[in-house]
């Protein structure tokens, strides 16, 4: 992961333990997705537990891995909305066109 955004300069890497909230987001969304899918399959197709359990376990393993980066991005966006950083100072360009 980059340390800062190349466009706006927002810091991605924060202090240790910063992304613990992203783990909670990832866990919650995985739980909702797996439980919702299992209940929907049971209601629509009447699948028994021996069929639903392997599907739920597979989803419980794959979804957190697939959603990991999105959960971190969501956590950063939530933090930025609640506690925005000041924009970085802009570099002044001298007449030669080079930045100091």
Structure report:
The protein is mainly α and 100 residues long. Helix content is 60%, strand content 0%. The chain contains two helices and no strands. Helix 1 packs antiparallel against helix 2 (49-82). The longest helix is centred in the middle third of the chain and has 34 residues, at 49-82. It is elongated. It starts with 19 loop residues before the first helix and ends in an 18-residue tail after the last helix. The model has no long low-confidence stretch (mean pLDDT 83).
Q: Topology of this structure?
A:
Layout: H1 20-45, H2 49-82
Helix pairs in contact: 1-2
Using only CA atoms, what is the Rg? Answer: 21 Å
Number of helices: 2
Number of strands: 0
Content of β-strand: under 5%
- Note poorly predicted spans: none
- Helix and strand succession? HH
Q: pLDDT average, as an integer?
A: 83
Q: What general form does the structure show?
A: elongated
Describe the main β-sheet briefly: none
Query: Pairing-aware structural class of the strands and helices?
Result: mainly alpha
What is the helix content? 55-70%
Question: What's a quick, concise take on this entry?
Answer:
With 100 residues, the chain is mainly α.
Characteristic terms for this protein:
100 residues, mainly alpha, 0% strand, 2 helices, elongated
């Amino acid at each position: 992961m980059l340390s800062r955004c190349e466009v706006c300069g927002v810091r991605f890497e924060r202090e240790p333990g910063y992304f613990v909230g992203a783990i909670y987001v990832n866990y919650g969304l995985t739980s909702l997705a797996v439980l919702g899918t299992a209940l929907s399959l049971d209601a629509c197709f009447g699948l028994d537990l021996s069929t639903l359990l392997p599907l739920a376990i597979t989803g419980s393993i794959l979804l957190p891995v697939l959603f990991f980066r999105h959960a971190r991005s969501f956590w950063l966006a939530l933090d930025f909305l609640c506690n925005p950083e000041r924009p970085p100072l802009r570099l002044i360009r001298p007449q030669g066109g080079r930045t100091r």
